[in-house]
Model the fold of this input.
Amino acid sequence: MSRRWIWLVVVVIGLFLLLHRSHFGVIVLHYHAINERTGKEGEIAVRPGDFAWHMTYLEKGGYNVIPLKQAVEYLTEGSKLPPKAVVISFDDGYMDNYEKAFPILKNHDYPATVFVATGEIGGVNRWDLDKGFAELRLMDWEQILTLEDQGITVMPHTVHHVDLTTVSQARRKAEITQSKKVLEDRLGREAPYFSYPDSGVNDEVVEEVKKAGFEAAFTSSFGTNMYEKVDPYRIRRMPVKEIHKGFWGRLLFVIELKLCSLYPF
Ligand SMILES: [Zn+2]
Done:
């Protein structure tokens, strides 16, 4: 199918979804970097201008941005959710999140959660370099502590950002338990939520995450999350990436937000 036809289908589905007012469960937005890079280098990046647009759209569109904790309480206990509930999450802890995204979040007074690889804090995204992505700086401890003071929660994403399905059982256990411990020791509070690097999750990984004492864990699978329909250790997210840049990207963001809420149901 040519590009033009693909867009036509997107627009038709989009118009249908824009008129569809239902929103089921809670959607967790899944961002990585917030910068101006494009192409392969910027595959996991959203431009600051587009990120600001997304946040304004949530506000104008009547979405309720809630803390991750509230979403997990709904998914584990069935506690009440506000209508059109959305959570904002970031993986990896890029410095550009601190510099570009958080001032925008602060303007809206939105809570958010950042998942960090605790052994890479203050370094760069070494794990992405062989994929052709740009080398990006990661936040240091001082910045993480500043965020915590401002209502942005930081949670573990392993120690060295490894795909947990590809390592030994001993390494898997160490990556999961040590990242939790390091963060809890440093921040002086519980760190009960985890996100799987590179979508690396299977039954053994989930078992290890449960054993380590986590209450919930986040994947990169697309879809909304409804009480008793989604496993709290395989919470879905809506990835927001390079494709969501510019006019068409913003339209796609709006359409996906609607679509995400309906899938799976
Ligand atoms: Zn990651």
